[in-house]
Write a structure and sequence with these properties.
Blueprint: E1 7-8, E2 11-12, H1 14-18, H2 25-36, H3 53-58, E3 66-70, E4 73-74, E5 86-88, E6 102-104, H4 105-108, E7 117-121, H5 139-146, E8 150-154, H6 160-176, H7 182-194, H8 207-210, E9 213-217
Parallel strand pairs: 3-7, 7-8
Antiparallel strand pairs: 1-2, 4-5, 5-6, 8-9
Helix pairs in contact: 2-6, 6-7
Amino acid sequence: SSLRNAFRGQLGDIEEINQLRPLPETEKEINEIAKIFNANFNKDVLLGKNANEKLIKEYDFSEKDIIVFATHALVSQSMKGLNEPALVLTPPEIATLENDGLLTASEILQLNLNAEFVILSACNTASSIESNQSGLSGLVKSFIFAGAKTLLVSNWDVDSKSAALLSTNTIKNYANNPQQGKSFALRQAMIQLINSPKKSDRFYSHPFFWAPFMIVGEGS
């Protein structure tokens, strides 16, 4: 289904947002990362109906070092009336200004972050639809201005399963060897994906599955 009508006026169109492809791998991805850092699953892990715009806006991110969003991302103009990129969250039954299922770049700017590492496990989180704009516009710049020090982002559409594997392994590598830095952790995760022994993952050696990801920000 086309997303061109999913944003009408100031609000996202709930029906169109609900037609986005499900991402079943993301729950496992988030849970595995949460276990690495001994996160409080009742407080710090927001899945399904709890992964909504209202709770995200009310959440206290100020003391969180690692923040992970595993969802769909939309670039500017990917739907009618959407003039800025956005992360897709679980939409309500009826859209409101506070909660329409889309966490836009301007709304991200209002978050109070102090995160060492933000992982955006989604498509096109670093790209801009305008050819004359920097790839650091949109979501990346918003997170940095909101207080994120470093981000893991993607430059084009990604496969959900390989993205989940890559982001999870990046976090594992960084947690095991933080002194090596985040770029090293990502590079090792790429190598792990390329050399995966599983037959089901044999296609992941192709650059399409790992090349779009990059680290941006300070302390990478």
